[in-house]
Design goal:
Length: about 200
């Protein structure tokens, strides 16, 4: 989407509306303020709604599957970077940014999911978690969006060693699909807002 806006203007601007601590920074893809063409209030509403809905989905998933942690990692601004975007867990995160090649996430290079019914001390580390945290089983699923592009990873933990059944995996897949579907809708709405604002602005010239 960042490329979309840059292309529309015919040049790359440095006016990125992605300031740390702002609500816009919560959006899981990058937006340019683009000299005021984007309607800030409209985007803030979408941003808060999407993150709130995502966190609600993670809480429900955690309750339904008896999880100790549910974390959604989203693609960051740097290659191989993942950002801890939303989560439901009993303890804080050890790191807000992780590398997709680090620890257990590195095994996702050639697959779309990881299913460990028994997570041991010798298992690859979970990058966003403290090493002292008790983990009995671990599951991760890649989120696919923008056609066939990998846009994030949904990571789940249990304190007890327990298999991930077909029913569990189906529910996880459905939640991942809902998150991706809402993400796609928000992108379309953002583009529509941009087009309308750009048209209105050009018609006043």
């Amino acid at each position: 989407m960042h490329r979309f806006f840059s292309t529309k203007f015919g040049k790359k601007t440095d006016n990125h509306y992605f300031a740390e601590g702002s609500e816009v920074a919560l959006l899981p893809f990058h937006l340019e303020q683009a000299n005021g063409l984007l309607n800030q209030e409209a985007h803030l509403t979408l941003i808060r709604s999407f993150r709130g809905n995502t966190e609600c989905q993670l809480r429900l998933l955690r309750s339904a599957l008896g999880l100790s942690s549910a974390v959604l990692l989203w693609n960051g601004s740097e290659p191989d970077q993942l950002v801890c975007y939303a989560w439901s867990r009993s303890s804080s995160l050890a790191a807000p940014l992780v590398n997709i090649k680090e620890g257990i996430l590195g095994t996702l290079k050639d697959r779309d999911e990881i299913s460990l019914p028994s997570y041991r001390s010798t298992s690859p580390a979970i990058p966003y978690s403290d090493s002292c945290r008790k983990v009995g089983s671990f599951y991760a699923r890649v989120l696919i969006g923008d056609g066939d592009r990998r846009i994030g990873v949904l990571c789940l933990e249990r304190e007890v060693a327990m298999g991930w059944s077909v029913e569990h995996c189906t529910l996880i897949e459905q939640v991942a699909g809902l998150i991706c579907a809402e993400f796609a809708q928000i992108k379309i709405i953002c583009m529509s807002i941009w087009n309308v604002t750009a048209y209105n602005r050009s018609s006043m010239v």
